[in-house]
Amino acid sequence: MAWRPKKNLLQGELDNTVPGQVTGWLEFRGMSDIVRLNLAGNFHEDIRGKKIRLRNRAPQADCPSSMDRFVAQQTGTVGDITAGLPPHPYTMYPYVEWYSHENGRVVLEFDADEVEVVDQ
Length: 120
Fold this sequence. Notes:
Elements: E1 9-15, E2 21-28, E3 35-40, E4 51-55, E5 73-82, E6 95-100, E7 104-109, E8 115-118
Parallel strand pairs: 3-5
Antiparallel strand pairs: 1-2, 1-4, 2-3, 4-8, 5-6, 6-7
């Protein structure tokens, strides 16, 4: 089963400007620490080599306990990370997935206006 913590996500940034590496941070309601990511792999072609900023327009206030076992340092490999831009390499909407040594599969799905692509 996958972790799907988007309801607690406030904001974050993921960086794939170094080929073969995705780093970044995510801020979640219910966690006192910022979650840091250090993952092997790349974004999909639509945003490869770029940074993305994430924000949740409607975080839910009633579920902070669901983050109790989520680890603040996430290491592992990239699954599928796309902004859902043409030619739509994976989905037609922003999708962030990684496989962490600490928590297994993690999936965040977004509306298009919740993701900003930062072109270097």
